Amino acid sequence: MAKYLPLFPLSIVVFPGEKLNLHIFEPRYKQLVIDCLEQEKTFGIPSFIKNGVGTYGTEIEILEVEKKYGNGEMDIRTKGLEVFKVLHFDKMAPGRLYAGGEVELIENSYEEDVITKIKIKEHLKKLYESLGLETFYLDLPDNFTSYDVAHHLGLNTEQEYTLLQIETEAERQEAILQHLLQIVPIVLETERLKERVRLNGHFKNLTPPNF
Q1: All domains of the chain, ordered by start, with CATH?
Q2: Which of 95, 117, 132, 146 maximizes the CB count within 10 A of its CB?
Q3: Do residues 144 and 153 touch, judged by C-beta distance below 8 A?
């Protein structure tokens, strides 16, 4: 189903369910936020990628205005809802300062693959332990989705944008697992290399071989 949304392009990828805090300072986006609050509307954040507004983005709900400043700037708390595809983009929505566009919400399947999820957890544990980020793993709920860990995989913005376009949880899980299978051995080897560098130059208590 298509609908028209105010659009706020940013050089980030926002995933469904993600909490995002924004400081609003540009006049056009102050107007966007005020319009959304007054009309109880959502807005969209399409990813600005490769020097252009991407075709995909996420619908955003404003949860609350955390702070208002004397100059009209605001700190707002928001949450990602659903992924959309931009069908038509207007640099300026009719009669407004901000961009807008006709978007189509993506029919997203959240049916997961249990075996793949177990493998993802195993590799995430190795990754976070090797990086000294065990708390990330300990804080991970059993019912986590791909979106919950997407920003904690070492993906660059283009890779996150690719993940945003995948329409089923099982396929997203497979993409994440393949990424982890590639990077975890590299990270582990880097940690071993760092340890060898640290030990080099220390006095070594070595047992000579018998020959």
Answers
A1: 2-105 (2.30.130.40), 114-199 (no CATH)
A2: 146
A3: no
